[in-house]
Amino acid sequence: MSINQARRLAVAPMMDWTDRHCRAFHRSLTVRALLYTEMVTAPAVLHGDRDYLLGFDAVEHPVALQLGGSNPVELAEAARIGADYGYDEINLNVGCPSDRVQSGRFGACLMREPELVADCMAAIKEAVDIPATVKCRIGVDDQDPEISLFATVDACAAVGIEVFIVHARKAWLQGLSPKENRDVPPLDYDLVRRLKRERPHLNISINGGIANLDEAEAHLADDEDGVRLDGVMLGRVAYHEPALLGQADRRLYGAASEDVDAFAALDRYRPYVAARLNEGVRLAAITRHMLGLMHGRPGARAFRRILTVEAIQPGAGLEVLDRAAEAVREAEARREDAA
């Protein structure tokens, strides 16, 4: 499967969430979706602990490295290092609205500087043989999105960038918190479709507010003008209700394989968990990403409680996962008996 096919569904990069354990867990549910790292700044890659920042398990492929920064030279070198680590794509973050990225002149504030974004992307593209892509907003603050989005995309396309993931809402850098920026600015899906309609040669994925696979399928279908987006990116819903990813390969990729049930995902994930425990990783660092796996099922609360309380105990191991899963099985059996 090509990297462009993988982009049909991507799991969004989320700070402090999509670490290597989270990505390996998501891979137990979907073989095909493209996974993204948390944003890593170019200076951190150049001067920090690279194995800690960039290390990942081969099971995660296809996986993209998301970089933050605004210095083309630094970004090019960070991209080279990421490519050497084996990532399948290098992505530049032009969408994060946090105070830290504003003070560092990267993330969403770069929407004000499309030519700088293009310079950064040209440097990244020149540095690596893997795809170089952009994740952006439609604008920031008082910008007109019909101008700012197209300016950013066109500047990057002029230097050979073909793939864009668009979070279909503005970022308000003054007056809204990063959390509020995920919900308060209104979504403008039509503008993203217009971008695809008017730039049909570009690969355009949409992100923001997509709550389930039904909505994802709708974004991937032809509209009344025959316009079809190339991909969707799921964020918080994939993290908080990860079981939906177990249907993604069939529903979004047309795979002939059966859906991956939550219990099957746990079985797939066990070898990874065992390997990390043997390396000295604490179970809680792994299970914190799994709390939503049984969302909506009988016993989901017990599942979360066991993982939350018992995984932090010294020496906690795979038996904690087994007890959590068994709590769900028992709750489901009780419901069936009562029916």
Structural overview:
The protein is of the alpha/beta class. 45% of the residues lie in helices and 12% in strands. It has 16 helices and 8 strands. The protein has helices spanning 3-6, 20-27, 42-47, 50-54, 72-85, 99-103, 114-127, 145-157, 189-198, 213-220, 236-240, 248-253, 262-278, 283-287, 300-310, 318-338; strands at 9-11, 34-41, 63-68, 89-94, 132-136, 163-167, 203-207, 231-234. Strands 1-2-3-4-5-6-7-8 form an 8-stranded parallel barrel, surrounded by 6 helices. Helix 9 (189-198) links the parallel strand 6 (163-167) and strand 7 (203-207).
- Strand order, sheet with most strands: 1-2-3-4-5-6-7-8
Order of helices and strands: HEHEHHEHEHHEHEHEHEHHHHHH
* Structure classification: alpha/beta
Instruction: Return the average pLDDT rounded to an integer.
Output: 94
Distance between the termini: 44 Å
Rg, Cα atoms, Å: 20 Å
**Which residue ranges are poorly predicted, with pLDDT under 50 across at least 5 consecutive positions?**
none
Shape: globular
Helical proportion? 40-55%
- Report the portion of residues in β strands: 5-15%
Largest sheet: 8 strands, parallel, barrel
Oligomerization: single chain
Please count the helical segments.
16
